[in-house]
Amino acid sequence: MEALDAEFCVRWLTAAAGAVEREADRLTELDSPIGDADHGVNLRRGFTAVRAALEEAPPDTPGAVLVLAGRQLISTVGGASGPLYGTLLRRTGKELGDAAEVAPGRFADALAAGVAAVGQLGGARSGDKTMLDALEPAAAALTQDAAAFGAAARAAAEGSAATVPMRARKGRASYLGERSVGHEDPGAASSALLLAALAEAAGTAR
């Protein structure tokens, strides 16, 4: 796979915004029994702002695209999702630096750093029934094979589905104890959408 540029990252986030728009109601339904029933609404508002900002003045490097998107999410998404998703994209973007193009391997390493930053911010890890149950296996798949965007998306989807039987150990859902069992984590579900959009963007790369 060729080097990834700013246009690639814009395609990724535009596809993510479209996926969140389509799935917002489902995400909110997932959030209803174990959260505040606003995950889809909040993410739709945030990614709509991201898409508008990128259409108005798209940055010319991959890192700058992701940093801009992260800032938009932090400023427009309520609850914990804004800081967490914002941290994911901002840290990934900062790891990419000012390069106009980045090799897939460098992108994979930067994404892994972004995922690690999410874990540090939220104090969570895989198995806690959070977005990390989707993000960590996806990042691992890319680290093992930098061109395996489809495998990363599948790993995220499988990780999200695996949260259903888990008992939540972090976030609002953890207050429910055993009642959190039997529900897919909404953050993991939205993270799977983000990785599916990444695979979609990679599939249309030059």
Task: Sum this structure up briefly.
The chain is mostly helical. It is 67% helix and 2% strand. It has one domain (4-203): Serine Threonine Protein Phosphatase 5, Tetratricopeptide repeat (Alpha Horseshoe).
Describe the structure.
With 206 residues, the chain is an all-alpha fold. It has a single domain, classed as DhaL domain (Serine Threonine Protein Phosphatase 5, Tetratricopeptide repeat, Alpha Horseshoe), CATH 1.25.40. The protein contains eight helices and two strands. The protein has helices spanning 6-31, 39-56, 62-76, 81-96, 104-122, 132-144, 149-161, 186-203; strands at residues 4-5, 101-102. A two-stranded antiparallel sheet has the order 1-2. Helix 1 (6-31) packs antiparallel against helix 8 (186-203). It is globular, with a radius of gyration of 16 Å. The model has no long low-confidence stretch (mean pLDDT 93).
